[in-house]
Write a structure and sequence with these properties.
By secondary structure, this protein is an alpha/beta fold. The protein contains 13 helices and eleven strands. It has helices at 51-55, 78-92, 102-111, 139-146, 158-168, 177-184, 202-211, 229-234, 252-261, 276-288, 292-295, 300-306, 308-316, and strands at residues 16-22, 31-36, 43-46, 129-133, 150-154, 172-173, 187-193, 213-224, 248-249, 264-272, 322-329. It has a seven-stranded mixed sheet, sandwiched between helices. A four-stranded antiparallel sheet has the order 1-2-3-9, with no helix packed on it. Helix 2 (78-92) packs across helix 3 (102-111). The chain is globular and about 55 Å long. The two termini are 35 Å apart. The structure holds zinc ion (ZN). The site of zinc ion has 8 residues, from loops.
Length: 330
């Protein structure tokens, strides 16, 4: 285990303790500190397991490594499919792209919030090539392929890679991003969905992703937003601290600072709504206080629905629990 003594982002030698969070997946009764840098705000889990020790904290059945497919791009529900088609046409250029005009501009604005419901696609790029790093069971790759992208996935966990191959017939590789880029690159888009918080060296990961880009290419990155309202409200109970699997904890500002260090700029970013994370965090709060029976009561699904407006309000104030950014080379 490695104790964090200085800030990965700015090098400051002083870190203050934000909270102590129990490990919740392996059941060994361990807990980890979340440390924050007073200078730049970057947060780290401490201590951090390394190498095979870190791999041991990913139990079989770890959710992102198992298929959680939301179904095909268009699922046969006429209204939902029509709305999705319009959002992807107007906002991302698919299906012929925007045709222009004042009415269409109004339609685009009206449909805008629906962008935050579905997986975030890259902009339409004829003949585009996409690399998804840490692709897990392949959900995002299958989604991009259905939108016409030529896709390659990179996944270290053999069981997840095998599931992605078996379920979707995808091209999934092991190895490192740099070795793959040399053989198959470059790419129009490199996606890093919930990767940067898991890797020992997020700086190196972003730099490698940048090297994998074609001129004009960009990175799509998603991380938990440690600057969200529920992290502030629920402290150590927020589920996205998830130590020690989450080694680093980003906010919009610290993700932008890391990007700058890697020769990238945040061209666009937003947070996502979602009451599910809040509900699970509330259950953790009850369990942590010894009220496991309350967390096991029925009705949490209803609470999730009732809290739906909270998620959208947080999103509107850029304080949603998950952060999505488009990073372009400087
Ligand atoms: Zn710092």
């Amino acid at each position: 285990m490695k104790i964090q003594e200085s800030c990965l982002l700015c090098g400051s030698g002083f870190l203050s303790e934000r909270c102590t969070v129990p490990e919740r997946a392996c059941g060994k009764g361990e807990s980890f500190k979340i440390l924050a840098c007073p200078s730049c705000g970057f947060m780290a889990t401490s201590p951090q397991p390394e190498g095979p020790e870190l791999a041991g904290y990913y139990p079989d059945g770890y959710a992102p490594h198992t298929a959680s497919w939301r179904g095909p791009l268009f699922g046969g529900k006429p209204v939902r499919d029509a709305l999705k088609r319009e959002v992807f046409r107007l906002w991302y250029g698919y299906f012929g792209g925007p045709r222009g005009g004042a009415l269409e501009a109004l339609e685009k604005r009206a449909l805008g919030p629906l962008r935050f419901i579905w997986l975030v696609p890259p902009d339409f790029t004829p003949g585009g090539r996409l690399l998804d790093v840490g692709c897990g069971a392949g959900e995002y790759l299958a989604f991009a392929r259905d939108l016409g992208w030529s896709v390659v996935g990179l996944e270290a966990k053999a069981a997840a890679a095998e599931e992605a191959r078996r379920t979707f017939g995808l091209d999934i590789r092991a190895g490192t991003l740099d070795s793959l880029t040399a053989a198959d690159g470059p790419f129009d888009v490199v996606s890093l969905w919930h990767v940067l918080e898991h890797v020992a060296d997020p700086d190196a990961a972003l730099k490698s992703a940048r090297r994998a880009l074609k001129p004009g290419g960009y990175i799509l990155a998603g991380v938990p937003n440690a600057g969200c309202w529920e992290a502030a409200l629920l402290g150590s109970h927020w589920l996205q601290w998830d130590p020690p699997r989450h080694l680093w904890h980003f906010t919009p500002d610290t993700l932008a600072a890391l990007a700058r260090r890697c020769g990238l700029r945040v061209a666009d970013w937003h947070t996502l709504p979602g009451s599910g994370d809040l509900v699970v965090s509330l259950q953790f709060a009850l369990r942590d206080r010894g009220f496991s029976w309350a967390a096991a009561l029925p009705g949490w699904g209803l609470l999730r629905l009732l809290l739906w407006p909270y998620g959208w309000l947080a999103r509107a104030r850029n304080a949603g629990g998950r952060l999505v950014a488009r990073l372009e080379p400087l």
